């Protein structure tokens, strides 16, 4: 079993920055793919950024050049550095992971709230 625990959310003004962290417990193989998803009220959950164990990354267009995903395999931790935050980035952010053999996330964190407001 894998547990994912997010932290780092909070209130920030437009243009500000936050760094989210997600610490995983369990088999490292379950962390082949790590992703950050977000869900705003009334919206579907969407993939924001992902990273594989080899370091291959992917971003949704709306966050490119503003967000950076990274991971520390030794610490079983994935990060999401969010810069130049916009009101439309406000959502609950979830960490997710899966094994190589899977195509959709198997494990989810509890989520962390990001509020962007002046």
How would you explain this protein's 3D organization?
The chain is mainly β. Helices cover 0% and strands 51% of the residues. It contains no helices and eleven strands. The protein has strands at residues 3-7, 10-12, 18-25, 33-39, 46-52, 57-59, 67-72, 77-82, 91-98, 107-108, 112-116. The strands form two sheets. Strands 2, 4, 5, 6, 9, 10 and 11 form a seven-stranded mixed sheet that branches. A hairpin with a 6-residue loop joins strand 4 (33-39) and strand 5 (46-52). It starts with a strand and ends with a strand. The model has no long low-confidence stretch (mean pLDDT 95).
* Helix-strand pattern: EEEEEEEEEEE
Number of strands: 11
- Rg calculated over all Cα atoms: 13 Å
Structural class: mainly beta
Distance between the termini: 40 Å
Oligomer: single chain
Largest sheet: 7 strands, mixed
Shape: globular
SS strand fraction: over 45%
User: What number is the mean pLDDT?
Assistant: 95
Stretches with pLDDT under 50, minimum 5 residues: none
Number of helices: 0
Query: Into which percent range does the helicity of residues fall?
Result: under 10%
In short:
The chain is mostly beta strands and 118 residues long. Helices cover 0% and strands 51% of the residues.
């Amino acid at each position: 079993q894998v547990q994912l625990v997010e932290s780092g959310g909070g209130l920030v003004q437009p243009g500000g920055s936050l760094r989210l962290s997600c610490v995983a417990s369990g088999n490292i193989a379950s962390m082949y793919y790590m992703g950050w998803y977000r869900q705003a009220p009334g919206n579907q959950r969407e993939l924001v950024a992902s990273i594989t164990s080899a370091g291959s990354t992917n971003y949704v267009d709306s966050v490119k050049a503003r967000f950076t995903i990274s991971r520390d395999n030794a610490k079983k931790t994935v990060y999401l550095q969010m810069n130049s935050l916009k009101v439309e980035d406000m959502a609950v952010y979830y960490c997710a992971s899966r094994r190589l053999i899977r195509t959709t996330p198997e494990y989810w964190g509890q989520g962390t709230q990001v509020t962007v407001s002046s």
